[in-house]
Design goal:
The structure is a homodimer. Chain A has helices at about 15-30, 45-55, 75-95, 110, 120-125, 145-150, and strands at about 5-10, 35-40, 60-65, 100-105, 135, 150-160. Chain A has 6 helices and 6 strands.
Amino acid sequence: MDTHGLLMVFTGNGKGKTTAALGMAMRSAGHGLGVCIIQFIKGSWSYGELKAVKRFSDNIDFRVMGRGFTWKSDNLEEDKRLALEGWTLARECIDSGKYHLVILDEFTYLLHYKMLDLDVCLDVFSNRSPSQHVLVTGRYAPDALVELADLVTEMQVVKHPLQKGIKAQRGIEF
Amino acid sequence: MDTHGLLMVFTGNGKGKTTAALGMAMRSAGHGLGVCIIQFIKGSWSYGELKAVKRFSDNIDFRVMGRGFTWKSDNLEEDKRLALEGWTLARECIDSGKYHLVILDEFTYLLHYKMLDLDVCLDVFSNRSPSQHVLVTGRYAPDALVELADLVTEMQVVKHPLQKGIKAQRGIEF
């Protein structure tokens, strides 16, 4: 069958974006296909997820970039430098042809907070190999990214346990 | 930390419900916690997903119930019998206390198409052990289920590759 590389976006404020990215990585790895996951927000992946990914170390490369969860930094220049470093790695992975699927987890924040040039990123996505699948996750996906993408799902929060005062649960939310 | 069993629902017409369920199963299994996945629509899980789950056979039990994807059957009684059989298994898993997380994948269809008594199901969810996590996926989650749940995400389709005439891709959608 013909491989048509998809540009995919999981966005919205609900739970399930990174979880679905992890599931998709497993699905590809299950087929024996190579996956690279680049985590743009350090610490956003839990011990449970990291251990799960490690079981697939033959098929999944996992890379951590960036630093804390918020980009409200006291050192904007340093954040921009880290963002660019992460993006350079992402670009190399996309251009390498080595992976069936490249996942840029929480990448939208870098665009939303203007850590990176949106046009440059869209250009790389547009000019990638026609068979290269790319999945971008995170809130606030820019309109132009949604416009370019082939598959976009918005995970909308209908209810969240915190609304009932329930703390995050091990093995479920982290 | 205290475990507060969550009743979770991933619904909506977008991609990512079962994918996120798979990711959550991996997350729990990564922690070494037991998971039971009951697939209510036979054939809805792909070879890639099944192979991924098999790597976690020490932590994840996977059970297939039901039959074809649609419930527009020529044998309604047989469908109801299979639905009840699946539900009986689900109930046993929930009541067993054996699993950290029980996933009822595509279960909402059984409720939507009235294969099962909604009140009976909600009763079992309500009266489960307070530490038991349950995740239900599928379109058309009934209002009463959403009402009861602690966490509900609606995966909304913003864009789907089929809209551009692109076929489903291996390792991505199956």
